[in-house]
Amino acid sequence: MAPVMIVLSTLILITECPHMLYRQLRTGENVTPLWVNKFRTIVNDAESESSRLAEKDDPHVTRFGNTMRKFRLCELSQFWDVLISEMSFIGPRPERPDFIEAISEENPYYNLRHIVNSRLTGWAQIMYGYGSSSDDAVTKLQYDLLYIKNQS
Q1: Nearest-angstrom CA–CA distance, 90 and 73
Q2: Residue 85 CA to chain centroid, in angstroms?
Q3: How do residues 107-126 score in pLDDT, each as one tens digit?
Q4: Going along 7-124, which residue ranges are E strands?
Q5: Which terminus of the chain is more solvent-facing, meaning fewer CB atoms within 10 Å of its CB: N or C?
Q6: Which helix (H) or strand (E) is 126 found in, with range?
């Protein structure tokens, strides 16, 4: 895994910007704050005004960032979070606090996904991919809750 991460870091440095990694505040188990490490896929000031959901043709995504997102390579840096037990491998992904607040207003069941430790990837990502609307969030929530109900 380390060689892949070194190659990704080098490509980001060469093609995009000097800041290959960044930390982003997410919400973890029991709705506690969780900082996750991510490879940079967007331009430096893309979220200077407010948080943004990932969109399919987002103009803030860098050229190499599109490839990284397509194959979910931007999440590989979170293996460190798994190694230090901040996250686990499979289950609901941690979301950003402002998104959780907005989605929870529309769907009071949304916080149920936080009864387990945050995960690197989940059934919702495998089956649905990126979502950018409240309807997408409901669909992904259904996958997350199905996974939580049936996890071993």
Answers
A1: 16
A2: 17
A3: 999 999 999 999 998 889 88
A4: 21-27, 33-39, 88-90, 119-121
A5: C
A6: helix 123-127
Reply yes or no on whether the pLDDT at 15 is more than 70.
yes
114: Cβ contacts below 8 Å, ≥ 6 apart: 27, 28, 29, 30, 31, 92
List C-alpha distances in Å: 46 to 51, 57, 65, 128: 9, 14, 13, 24
Cα 33 from Cα 35, distance rounded (Å):
7
**The pTM is what?**
0.79
Hey, what are 40's tokens?
A: 């940079």
d(CA 35, CA 23): 6
Confidence of residue 104 (pLDDT cuts 50, 70, 90): very high
In a 13 Å sphere around the CA of 130, the CA atoms on its Cβ side amount to: 13
User: Per-residue pLDDT averaged across 131-146, rounded?
Assistant: 89
| pLDDT tens-digit series, residues 19-38 | 788 889 999 999 999 999 88
